[in-house]
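Let's do one together. I've listed all components of the complex below, 813 residues spread over two lines.
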Amino acid sequence: MDGAMRQAMTSGVFGNYQTPPQFLDEVFCQAGKVNPEYEALYSQFLKYSKDDYRQLNEHAKTSFFNQGITFSVYTDKAKGVERIFPFDLFPRIIQADEWAQLEKGIIQRCVALNLFIQDIYTHKHILRDKVVPADLIFSSKNYLKAMLDIKPVAGIYNHISGTDLIKHSDGKYYVLEDNIRCPSGISYVLTNRVAMKRALLETFRKFKVSTVQEYPQELLATMQSVAPQGVDAPNCVVLTPGVYNSAYFEHAYLALTMGVSLVEGRDLYVEKNFVYMKTINGPKKVDVVYRRIDDAFLDPMAFNPDSVLGVPGLMGAYREGNVSLVNAPGTGFADDKAVYTYVPDIIKYYLGEEPILNNVQTYRCEKDDDFKYVLENMQNLVVKPVDESGGYGILIGSKATKEQLAEFKQLITQNRRKYIAQPIMNLSMHATYIEGEDRFEPRHVDLRTFTLLGKDRQFVLKGGLSRVALKKGSLIVNSSQGGGSKDTWVIRDDSAV
Amino acid sequence: MLSRIGNSLFWMGRYLERSEHIARYTRVQYVASVDSPLAHNQENVLESILHMTANWEGYFQTQQQLEANAVINYTAISEDNSFSILSYIDRVRENARGARDSISIELWEAINSFYHKINAYAAAGLHAEEIEYFARRIEENSYVMKGYIDNTLLRNDVWQLIYLGMHLERAIQIILILQTKFKDREKMLSGPDYAAYENFIWTSTLLSVESFDMYMRCQKTAPDKHHVLNFLLFDTAFPKSVAFSLNTVKQCINEISFQEEKKQGFIHFEAGKLACNFQYTTVKDIEENPVEFLNTTLESIYALAHLLDAKYLKYN
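Okay, and this is what the predicted structure of the assembly comes out as:
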């Protein structure tokens, strides 16, 4: 090591980096040494002075801002303040062999969940065989009677899945959550990659990073593969709630990169069970809808009658097989956090295979033994409501006050079906640039992966959204609660090709 | 193309054009008032700005008297005023955002980054003198956005609809400027310095449309009512004249693949009628009562715009 490098290690952006003793740091091992897969990246970053790096970071931020990759934060002013989703330029690396295993596990899980949904809305074998308790399904607010006996094209319900993974202190990946309603975040993966290339092209070239840019084409092909029978050149659209939705950027980005129309509910209407969009040249039939509107708002005739976002009669057209919806309505009961605990059993039941990916040990408060355990050990557990998303309504036992613990005990007792608890998982940490401090510090990360299932096709994006909890010590990575993101580099195994 | 997208593109073009004309008019009038041949002219100028920008009533709902800083702030940047320049820029961006999947990434970035910059600039409020800087940013960036419209978009319905909106609005704005100037002039007709004022008023009219030098090149005479009307209304070679704009409107409507028949009450017919009418009118025909001609022309253009909105770009 030369003198300049030694100096950079103490005064540069990595100066004074404290490896967390009780957690797994993916970049540094305990002694503060860089892990081999990060060596090249680390030495590249050491070359930046604090000023250089601050500039680089500002430059990337401006690029996001001008591209409109923002979400609105509402204030008392007439205009909401727009924020970018914070992005960290130091990427996360996943090795080829590690990824290959993850990919297999993710596909296995998504395929099994699809069979599970299909079974529940048709024969219900799994309930009769008592592998999953029937109550659990029928008490879920996301179970839709309107879906009974509907047969989606090719039997696919969860065309798009976002599987959330974490790396525990034991170095293994665990599934934290399945998202099979309208998982979001893919546009950040794609734009993060563009920003990375703009900012750090030289560094990028030294790694064999798998590309992510084919995702929109894969999504389009997936949509086309499930077009209604007899439709040759399907008209595919993305259905958005509109410009005021926080994920509007993503909806527009996907429509733009797939080259399809971005429609709102008011652009569509249903006549004789066919769906049409209103164009300046008259009506045009719509065949496949990638809908980014929640089930409850899809069709005011079938679900929430107050919805102005949806399309009256859409479910009728769907039932007749004249339009395909991606994802199918009613998948939400299967990514419920209480059903989560049964996923290993579900995989064994439908596929006759052992699950490849680990599940986090979960206690279901509705079971008497588990309920008792949760009440007695709450300070060591994370308690979650089963049907909320976005990190809301969660209690982290080790950080809760006495009053909060007491309050949650009462909440759980009142509605045991609603809560599950898990041991506090030690999300791995990753070196993350902290603005204001002008240096890198360890922060907790998870990984959202994106999977597509179509007729005779399966695809897992090689990469994903590494979400970072920017607040010191925080375990919550959701963007609505102070989360940021990192580019995720899955290293290509060229020898296998 | 979705009717809603068509609507967004049309209005994006209109608001872009409108913000540019209002910015320029406000700047030119305000700056010209500094060396005007008449005493007490500043009040007249402030009144003129409020009239042309349709802000007269709104302004006096919250203010007791004419005051330069208040007028400039209300017209240029007030968030509470939906007819302020900044509000129009917001709407340009909102419409572009609604039609994002139809326009180019470059055009969107130009609109979006300008929106952020100008909002940041305006956050601290404006002194009346700053209208010079503020309005020039609006005018320049309008040309930048139009550059992206012209150089990055396919020549299809998307481009035609933006262009249609821009030129329809341009015809409207030129007429509004002329109407306002006739109103300003009326106040002075009986005054002692009238002769000096006549030249001043027509010169500042031309400057408000960025057309003084082109006017001189064509008409080769000091600006007066006859020649200025002739140039701004009927010169088909000048891209800001009403005749030029209405001709472009007609061409755009012919190119857009609206589904319809070509007969009375339909858009092609009405646009054609309007443009042809203009083509075969000369300044001599209207000189006796120019204000009435301006009024009826404006009504016909509004009727055409309404027809488009209500029949062809309707989506709710």
